[in-house]
Structures are given as C-alpha cells and as structure tokens.
Write a structure and sequence with these properties.
With about 700 residues, the chain is α+β, with helices and mostly antiparallel strands. Helix content is about 25%, strand content about 30%. The protein starts with 10 loop residues before the first strand and ends with a helix.
Amino acid sequence: MRSPRPRTSWFTALSTGALVLAVPSTAAAQPGPTVAEAANAVEVHVARSAGAPGYTVSVTKDALRMTTSRGGRTVLQSTGGDTLRFAVGNTWQHATKVTGWAWRDGTLRITADTTAPGITAELRLTPGADRYALAWDVHGGTADKLGLTYDLGSAGHWYGHGETATPQGGPGVDQPWPLERGTVRDKAFSPASYAMIDPFWYTSSATGLWVDTGEVMDVGINDGGDGLGRFVVQRGGTYKATVFVEDTPLEVYRDYVGIVGKPAKSDSTYRQFSEPLWNSWAQFYTKVDQAKLLDYAEKLHANREPGHTVQLDDKWESHYGNLTFDATTFPDPKAMSDRIHDLGFDFGVWVTLWINLDSANYQYAVDHGYLLGDRADPAKPCKVTWWNGEAGIIDLANPAAKSWYENNLRGLMAKYRIDGFKFDTRFFDDRCAPSGGKQRSDYQRLGAEMADQFDLQGAGIRVHWTPEAHRSGMTIRQEDKGTGWNSVKASVTQNLAISTVGYPFVETDMIGGSLSDPPPSKEVLIRWAQSAALMPQMYSSTSPVDTWDVTTGKHVVYDQETIDRYRAAVKTHQRLAPYIWDQVQSTLKTGDPIMRPLFFDFPADQRTYTVDDEWMLGPAVLAAPQLTAGASRDVVLPSGLWFDVTKKRVIHGATTLSGYATPLGVTPTFVNLLAPGAAKALNALLTP
C-alpha cells in the first residue's frame, strides 16, 4: 500500500497503528472529515454536525467494498467483489483488490485492479456533511457500461424508483412496496421512458442513492430473488452518484429535492383538486363517438356526479396527428363542446406529438424538417411503432416545429371551444436522435415547457428526471391499471413511489382501471373511488351509472348503490379540498409530498416501513381504505392521539386495530388530533 504524501502538519500517526489525515476546517467548531487506514480498509469519517448525523465510509482493500455506517451501525453496503462492475463488449468485469489510495483536495481517490487484463478502476469519494459524492471510471481500456451493486439487506427496506417494471405485471397491476419485496427489472430505465421514474432510491436506514446521469440505465432490484440492487448506466465514461446519509427517510427525500427542485407552482387549480376529471378512455376506449360522449356527460350530470371536466380521449382524430375531428364519428364537434359546457363541465381532448404515417400532417412535417431524426441516420425521419400504428415524432428542439404544433392546438381551442389537453405518449423516443446538440433528458424539459402553456385539466402529464419536470408543479398520472383488486392496491403503492421521488401532485390511474380489461366490478369501482377520495386528486373514467365492456361490446349498468357510493366518495374529497389545498401551499414551500408513507411522519415506528395499504394525506389524515375483496382489515396507528372518523372515538397510538369492520360504505379514516390542520380535516370528514 502506498500512503499519500503529507501535505500539511495535520498528518499524524495514532497509537493503534492506524494512519489518520485530518482535514482543516474553515469553521473552528466544525471539524472536517478524517481519513484513516486500518488493517484491511481505508475509512472516511464525517463527524456529527448541526442538522447532519455524521457517518463513516469504509472501503475494504482485499475485495473492494464500500460500507456506510452511522453511529456504529451499517446502513448501506455494496457487494464484495462486484461493487464496481463494468462491461467490455458483452463481458462483465469488476474491480477487485485496492492497489492504492490518496486524499487530495477533499476527495479520497482509490485505485483498484479489475478482472479485465490491463484495466484498472479509479473510485473518487468526496464527503459532505450529510452525503458523499461518488465517481468512478476505468483506465487502460474502454467500458461500455458502468454500474454499482448493493446488498439490499444492508440498508433495510428500499423505496423510490417510481413506476416499476416487474415480472408480475408492473406497473400496470403490480408495484412492490417496499421494492425488495418484489422483483424489479428495467433494462430501459431512461429519461425518455414513458414510465414515471427518477434515478433515486432511498431506504428505511435513512440512506439514499441518486445516480446523476442523462443516459439509459439497466436497473435490477432483487432481480431473480438475488437480494441485490444493480444500478447500471448503459454507457461508458464516468459513473456519477450521490449517497445521502441522514437520520430519517424524510430527510433523505428532502436532500434529493434540494438537488432536483420542488414545485414552483401548482399546475392544477383549486377546482381541479376538489372535483374529479371525467375522461372517456376506460368508458369507451377507441369505440367513442359524439353521441356516446354526450350521453356520458348527460348521465353524469343527471345523477349529480360532480366533475370539473369531460375529456375526450383517444380516437377523435381523422388520422393520428391530423389534429382534425373525424367527421363520421364527430359530425358537429362545436355543438358537442357547447352542450358539455352547458352541463357545467370544461371540455378537453387527448393529443400526442406522434404523427402517423397515414396522416396528412406527416408528409407536411417531413417536408419542413419538423420530425425527430433516426438514430442511425439523423437525416431521415425517425419512425416508431406505438399502440396506434407507425409514426414520426414532432421535434420540440426545433423552434419552427414547436411553434407549428402549438399553433395547431390553439386553432383547435378557438374553433371548438376546447379548454385544455391531455398530452400522451412521450416527448422523445430512444430509437430517435436528439437534435441541435440536445440530450434525451432535454426533451423532458421541452415537453414540460410546451405543455405548461395549456390547461392540463388535472389529467396531468408524464415528465420526469429533470429539474424542470420537478419544478413544473404538474399533476402526475400513473400508467394504465387493470380493473381488478391487484390494480387497486398497485394504484396506492405507485402513488407512494411517485410522490416520494419528488412529484407531490399525484392521482391514481382512472378510477376503476383500464388496460382494455372487462369493466371493474361494483365493489372494485366503489372501493377505488373511496381510496382516491383520500388522495390529492381524483381522475375518473368508468361511469358509476353505466359503461361498456370492451371485451364483449355489451352495455354494463351499475346499480343505484354504486352511483350513490361513488358520489359520496367524491363529496368526501370535495369537503377535504380546503385541507388538501392547504397541503398544496405547504408543498410549494417545502417540497414535501402530500400523499406519503406513514414512516415519513413516524420514522421511529418500525411497523410503518412495510405498511402498503395506508398513507398520510398531509400531516393530519391517515387513510386506511379497504383495498381487497374482504369486509375487514387491520389498521396500524402510529403514536399520537387519533380520532376514528367512522366510529367517532378517540384512540391513543401506537396500536394496531385488528379486524376493523369495513362494509361497503365504510372507509377507515383517522385524524391525528395533535397535527397541523387537524381541525380543518376533522370538520370536513365529520360534515354530512
């Protein structure tokens, strides 16, 4: 082992035989990090300071492994022998024995041999008060992929990521919570992904990992039940990441939001937080026409189902990308829009940047250079296959293309009295080439900026990964769900995942689900509405009056109880709107999520880290709705003084209510009487 040359008189030897380098501090009361060499490790120690818990990172020398500890307890550990892994061609290699270390300019530099002949790895660790930066690369050869591998069990439970790709059908019908209790494998974890994802993970041990990249990743969490977290960037160069070390998961979340940013505003209005959006997709799918949409709106109005907007989803255009109504199925769009407005709703339509090859606008866009270029040959338009055919994609990095598209939308608004849009598909595709020196992540920013000019009507959008996406304050909708109980459950855990990677204005997929499945049962539809009523916003489609079975083409009629209980759920949400709006304003100040896991508010209660069917709505409301076909459930109540809204009683936590009865009209809801906003929430929930 070659020791670093002493650069100052701070270099001393301890009687234990360890070698210590103390770094001078600019503040006398705040000691800097120290670096020590022990028998088989190099250690960085950061002392506790105001607002930071202190930690130690130990890098073993015989088989490079990083162990992070806080207060003498391991809180995160990489795997031995596979910590730094890289691919040369199609062969995976990894760092092995540490061959040297040096401390320079606040950074610990470690060199190591690898399993690839002639190639070495260099790891750079730069400590801060509550986090440390990691960077590593290889020398003597070229790596095609770089990754970090962690032992999941070393940090307790894992969260974050956003929507998960899983063998069990995620994100549509499966969203594990915590993550390691399922299996996650996403080979195209990308800034261009349709999934709502961020390269940020956090743990029950109050550590977090943020991978600072704009490249596609390959992420595996307990893939094949291996108990490992593999975070691979599918490109060579330098791997950059930050590891957060805090006292609670909420503080880790706040550290991350401090980097990517919190919402600068709320894109949705008070009314859009108060009442549902009614979207036609799961009601009709592409079998929609003017008569059906008007019948949908008329029946919602006649049955006193509140809502701020009726939104016409997919299959209103003559061809995808034409941005003109199909004259056969929509003979008088202006009259349709006028009638929807007369009923008290705003009117909106679904739009996309993807222009099908059979659209008249496609050739026009090609001729004017308005489309993204092909990755292999950027001079040719990129052609992508999606669920509605083959298309090109408007290049938002081209100012002329962006202006042309926006002017088309404004023309629609003016001609047909359209109030806003639901933007769907992606703003970029990894099969295409960015233009004008842009990166794929830039298209998330460009998409957010473009959409921000229009009313998104509570349907929100799916932008992520970039500070602009975080700061846009847009409502985030989930990917389509199925129509069974597993999707009801996934809609809850997915909201928890999305909101705790920095997108606090969340809603479930359309209440009742979609995915071209048979309509939800009465019980699923009611329970889903009851659950969504205790979330920031409600996104509806399947009407509790009647709907259509897309698998059979048959008309399905729900009973009066379904209509009444759905309306009751919406009324509960409406009464909670003043409390929810307070949480929106709080989030604009703090960045904290509105819908959040129990352990964000009660980190000392170990039971809360595996609760996947309860959440906090702001600091005062605990939601524990029935999410299965049963008529009872257990309810975990953390410490506090809780008012049971259903049974009108006060309960002292911490306790578990076993076998809490949940007939179809009951949604277990509790108010923490000692929390901010308790009085407003209690008044809302107790008002008939």
